[in-house]
Here is the input.
Amino acid sequence: MILIVVKMTVRPAYTEKWLDLVGDFTKATRDEPGNLFFEWSRSVDNPNQFVLVEGFASREAGDAHVNSAHFKTAMDEMAEAIATTPQIISTEAPGNGWSAMAELTPRNL
Here is the structure.
């Protein structure tokens, strides 16, 4: 699995509309055959920062994503909204998606 984490700091004027701005990109990516997950979160420390966690079944699926029309369109649209160059971690990881965490389970109430 290809695991990618991207930290994006957006301009304050775009913070509240960021998820709408990336909505079509998110849907198109989730519809890709090799996409395992594509999830946005917002930082609790910096309200202008969003974190994207992506998983692709293979290097080929990741390459197809980066070469897609919706990726190129999104990069162009996001360029106006970001405040700094995004930070990224991209690595090959074992497995094919999320696993259950062994150290924590819900208590029976």
Summary: The chain has one domain: 2-92. The chain has a mean pLDDT of 96. The first helix runs from residue 18 to 21.
